[in-house]
Amino acid sequence: MPKYDVTITELACAVVTVEAADKEAAKDQVEAMFNRGECSFTDYKDLDFEAELNSDALDKVQEEKEITVLMVPNGKPPKPQTVKNSMDAINRMMGGFVEFYPLEIPTVIIWIRRKQFNKTEMNRMIYDEKGRYRQTAYGDFFLCNLAADGQNFESLTPEQIKKYTQRFEQPDEMRTSSKDQKRPKKKRDNVR
Question: Does the pLDDT of residue 126 top 50, yes or no?
């Protein structure tokens, strides 16, 4: 289970009445009382709790085991591969920070974020099960399952590996989207 750091921010107020020669002497006297633990806060205001994943635990959100994925290298047929199931290991293996794109529940595509943004090295066109265009993938990517908790990756089943291997088999059959396609100009007959 991941660890979280919870920051408690409080604004506390206490009024302490003391006898002193002047304002500075009163402040010094109350500060000394506070340092000795003689003052207590009874009126807490604006209590706030903020939680974030502990930075030491960030890489441990993923279970430390290996999973079977379907690697889809640029211009080559897909192949099953075993990878370490941690974000740190996946980022190192892919050569950059990754993000995931939902393909079909529970399957996701893991690819390098900057390659999708820069749109270099087109790899495959992504279609849904009905053959409708959804996305273009740039650079190498792999497929795996996302756990129900949304925090862990899981292995593909043998049936999924077979299904997605067939779907992404032919890189040479990639189609360009209609906006990238140049249509030939129609020849017009100038008939009057």
Answer: yes
Query: Mean of the pLDDT values across residues 61-86?
Result: 85
Candidates 102, 64, 55, 104; CA nearest to 84 is: 64
In Å, what is the CA distance from 5 to each residue of 12, 64, 107, 152? 22, 21, 31, 20
Calpha distance 40→97 (Å, rounded): 49
- The b-or-e profile of 166-180 (16+ CB within 10 A means b, else e) is ebbeebeeeeeeeee
Residue ranges with strand state E in 35-97: 43-53, 66-72, 79-84
pLDDT band at 130 (very low <50, low <70, confident <90, very high): confident
C-alpha to C-alpha distance for 6 and 42, rounded to whole angstroms: 23
Using alpha carbons, list the distances in angstroms from residue 30 to 36, 39, 43: 10, 8, 17
Question: What is the pTM assigned to this prediction?
Answer: 0.56
Q: Any idea where the domains of the chain sit in the sequence?
A: 4-53, 63-173
- Measured CA to CA in angstroms, residue 84 lies from 67, 120, 158, 188 at distances of 6, 27, 18, 60
Q: Counting beta carbons within 10 angstroms of the beta carbon of residue 72, is it exposed (0 to 12), middle (13 to 18) or buried (19 or more)?
A: buried
Say which residues have a Cβ less than 8 Å from residue 176's Cβ, sequence separation at least 6. Answer: 125
- Which amino acid would we find at residue 30? V
pLDDT attached to residue 141:
93
Reading the block at residue 20, the tokens are 């002193």
